[in-house]
Amino acid sequence: MDNGGSNGSATASACCNGKINRGPHVAMLATPGMGHLIPLAELAKRLASRHGATATLITFASTASPTQRAFLASLPPAVSSLSLPPVDLSDLPRAAAIETRMSEECARSVPALTAVLAGLRRSTAGRLAAFVADLFGADSLDAARAAGVRRRCIFFPSNLHVLTLILHLPDLDAAVPGAFRDMPEPLRLPGCVPVPGPDVLMPLQDKADPCYRWMVHHGAKYRDAHAILVNSFDAVEPGPAKVLRQPESGGPSRRWPAVYPIGPLIHADGGRKDGASSSPCLEWLDRQPPRSVVFVSFGSGGALPAEQMRELALGLELSGQRFLWVVRSPSDGGAVNDNYYDAESKRDPFAYLPEGFVDRTCAAGVGLVVPSWAPQTQVLAHAATGAFLTHCGWNSVLESLVYGVPMVAWPLYAEQRQNAVLLSDGVGAALRVPESSKRREIIADTVREVMRGEGKGAAVRAKVAELQKAAAEGLRDGGAAAAALAEVVQGWTTTTGGGEKD
Q1: Helix 66-73 vs helix 34-51: angle between axes, to the nearest 10 degrees?
Q2: Are residues 181 and 209 in contact, defined by beta-carbon separation less than 8 angstroms?
Q3: Residues 6+ apart with CB under 8 A from 376
Q4: EC number(s) of the enzyme (predicted)?
Q5: CB within 8 A of 374, min separation 6: which ones?
């Protein structure tokens, strides 16, 4: 196996100070995508720092990018990593959905993963206490069972609303005869914000697509887990948090496992050292007034069609607000998630901006456009950042809440449209940009409303401040999220019992 990090398997038996580690060891499987790997790595780091655990992060060969290798190498000594061997996916159609490719890759890797986990049991001298797979890794629970790992969990990097939908999906599959997008009424699930059919999770929109069947499969397979750990917190989703905590919805003999909100887990990169800026965009932010800049980014995998790029550019200019925009080449000829496996632009993104836009805005000091990437957590933490125009990926949402930045919602794919409904209609932490033929004007109005705290923007700012405080309190010792994780770890280290899933 290829060791993806600098630590190797030595950390399975020793900690960073050279003493033998007697704490639990946890194996963790991250299905493709940095948005899956990063929160799982943050969970591993928290287990190490607060519970004396060591961990092995297991990744797939298809995502062995320089970015991923650098990230894995940056993890502390208590967290090692390895990569599963490649599997053949050449039989899948070129247009196969990302969810299908990830699910197939995991299912076809079960034999290799079984061998890896059996090896970890030997090398850790019996300390391998648990296996944790992320949301598309449900089939890997079979590998953990075959290898004799006693505690098998799902880590759900999205939110409780999406989890509730997936847990109910085997029943909904039979109850909803047609496509979700054609439902005359919003989808209503226990404790959740009603979701209009077209905003339901994108992989569920077409029942004829193999990714739909995979999602139904995962919803049923989650019931094989001992627990589901969710990267969310009660204050942002009180309804489903209460429902999923009720006895009739969890426990070893119930319909699905116990659910533990343990978030927010975000990757804070530590900021700048000795006052030095680590990127030009941070230097530019240093020169802007407090809370004066709207940060625009569509995540590590999102890209807009060319016409929407143009409307966004003109809307930002029309708003009169300062902006920092991470721009990528457009998605025309493909899908809005074309950059999922590679966040670098395939073409020069500046060539697709309106003529004269850069000169009128950037040269005048009003805006800054950067290609492909920016240090997002540092940007959100910066005093000059006043709002975040976001695709509503859940990692980005949590980062925005942790740093107290109100949001403008522009969802693209996956669960992002459903997240936008939650944020705008349920939580009140964002204003959503509606689809319209006059989109540039609506973009300008929405950005101004949030940046200036006018109209609904005032309520958004107040709600985000409230959630920022709740998130911090939950992560403190004795807080709800910290207590939930401690309960999970206690279950891993209990040597008696084991339940009928063993």
Answers
A1: 0
A2: no
A3: 295, 297, 396, 399
A4: 2.4.1.-
A5: 279, 281, 295, 297, 324, 326
Count of domains in the chain?
2
Q: Do 167 and 187 lie in a common domain?
A: yes
- Within-domain flag for 502: no
Write the pLDDT tens digit of every residue in 291-320.
999 999 998 777 899 999 999 999 999 999
Mean pLDDT value across the chain: 89
| Amino acid at residue number 62 | S
State whether the Cα torsion 311-373-428-212 is positive or negative: positive
> Cis (ω within 30 of 0) for the bond into 264?
yes
DSSP strands (E only) in 352-437: 367-371, 385-390, 407-409, 430-432
The answer to whether residue 171 is catalytic is: no
Task: Tell which residue, 120, 116, 125, 122, has the closest CA to residue 21.
Answer: 125
> What is the domain extent for residue 86?
8-267+476-493
Query: Is-contact 157 33, C-beta < 8 A?
Result: no
Query: Six-digit token pair at 202?
Result: 């994108």
Strand residue runs (E) in 117-179: 128-134, 151-156
Return the closest-CA partner of residue 382 out of 289, 265, 475, 274: 289
Global pTM?
Answer: 0.91
Span 428-465, pLDDT tens digits: 999 999 887 678 999 999 999 999 999 999 999 999 99
Alpha-carbon distance of 175 to 163, in angstroms, equals 18
- pLDDT 10s digits, 329-366: 887 654 544 545 444 445 688 899 999 999 999 888 89
Q: Phi and psi of 368, rounded to 5°? A: -140, 125
Q: What angle do CA 22, 477, 462 make, to 5 degrees?
A: 140
- Percent of the chain at pLDDT above 90? 76
Give dist(CA 38, CA 401) in Å, integer: 17
484 and 468 assigned to the same domain: no
- Concerning whether 359 is annotated as a catalytic residue, the answer is no
Q: For residue 441, give both structure tokens.
A: 């004007």
Residue 184 CB neighbours (<10 A): 5
Helix 480-493 and helix 34-51: axis angle, to 10°? 80
Distance CA 166, CA 181 (A): 16
CA distance 63 to 37: 10
User: What CATH number does the domain containing 466 carry?
Assistant: 3.40.50.2000
